[in-house]
Hints:
This protein has 181 residues and is α/β, with parallel strands linked by helices. Helix content is 30%, strand content 18%.
Amino acid sequence: MPAMSLPVSDPQTPDAPRWQGLAPVADERTRALVLGSFPGLRSLQLQQYYAHPQNQFWPLLQALWPGHPQPGRDDYAGRCEWLLVRGLGLWDVYASCEREGSLDSAIRAAEVNDFVALRARCPHLALALHNGGESYKHAGRTQALGLSVVKLPSTSPANASWRFERKVDAWREALAAHQLL
């Protein structure tokens, strides 16, 4: 198991741990970037995007590409390659933040990731798919890079107001509109 991203101590707020986010999953094939807010604790522990077993991200994407079986849960590198082959990358809007637990509502003192540097590494990047409302708060930053921006329903287990099928429909519509299906 990869080492857990340890919180960075901050003498200004000794009660709230400061966490460092994950590196982007993106390369020259990336045409669309799925942007979450910040990894949950399980994702930080495993150093994997969307690692919580109740997060619907990986099952949702498998529902969009049923003819292309996704590598299993134990093959994270294979899952990432599976996304990259389809033109999708992964990252979060926040590079680091203070947070107790995993909820977006608990995020404090967040530092935003360097989208300009990532854009330079991904010459075909044209679309930012914001996975939930917290991520979408930063749509202006991705739009300023000339990217189309789409707000999608969060795949988080905290987003219980949307049924799985409804989420799949919303994601399918967005990816189809940008020739990613």
